[in-house]
Design brief:
Pfam families: DUF5050. InterPro entries: LRP1-like_beta_prop. This is Prolow-density lipoprotein receptor-related protein 1-like beta-propeller domain-containing protein. By secondary structure, the protein is an all-beta fold. The protein has two domains: 43 residues, no CATH class; 118 residues, Neuraminidase (6 Propeller), CATH 2.120.10. Helices cover 0% and strands 54% of the residues. The strands form three sheets. Strands 5, 6, 7, 8, 9, 10, 11 and 12 form an eight-stranded antiparallel beta sheet that branches. The radius of gyration is 17 Å and the shape is globular. The relative contact order is 0.10.
Length: 167
């Protein structure tokens, strides 16, 4: 059996493998290859805990460079879904390490300085740094990976210290 994941790495929790397909749908399949199930459609990113699936849905705005972000929680036991928080003027976002990280825009392709994060329960919104980020590639642990307008790629501590250029 072959599972294709686009936009992320398959995640194993218990007897299940969770994966996203090219249509931004979240699926799960038993580790023995049985019970392939679609859980969500329109899932930009997801984060799994023992009892919940947190996921991001984006909707377009009049300004094509910005999105309205909705963070949702689906309880694993009964598939009950609830919206946790809505954030306007988002350029990009991802879930990592128990946080929602996101970048804001000013419209017409202009970006706001800094990276923001919020706890998965919607509390504790904070600006993590003051860096001008052209494109956020990934957040992993205490690091963010970015692409600047010049084409240079950097690995930067989330607090803005310790920038390392790489190809």
């Amino acid at each position: 059996m072959e599972i294709q994941s686009k936009g992320g790495t398959p995640t194993v929790v218990g007897d299940w493998v969770y994966y996203a397909d090219e249509n931004r749908s979240l699926w799960r399949i038993k580790t023995d290859g049985s019970m392939d199930q679609q859980l969500l459609s329109d899932c930009e990113d997801y984060y799994l805990t023992e009892d919940s699936i947190y996921y991001i849905a984006l909707s377009g705005t009049e300004d094509e460079s910005l999105f309205t972000l909705m963070l949702h929680q689906m309880e694993s036991a009964d598939a009950k879904t609830s919206e946790i928080i809505t954030i306007e003027a988002v350029v990009t976002a991802q879930l990592n390490g128990g946080y929602l990280y996101y970048q804001l825009g000013k419209g017409k392709g202009r970006l706001e300085k800094g990276l923001y994060r919020v706890n998965l329960d919607g509390s504790g919104t904070e600006r993590v740094n003051d860096i001008m980020i052209w494109q956020l590639d990934h957040v992993l642990g205490d690091w963010m990976y970015i692409l600047q307008y010049s084409g240079e790629r950097y690995r930067i501590k989330l607090d803005g210290s310790a920038a390392v250029s790489f190809e």
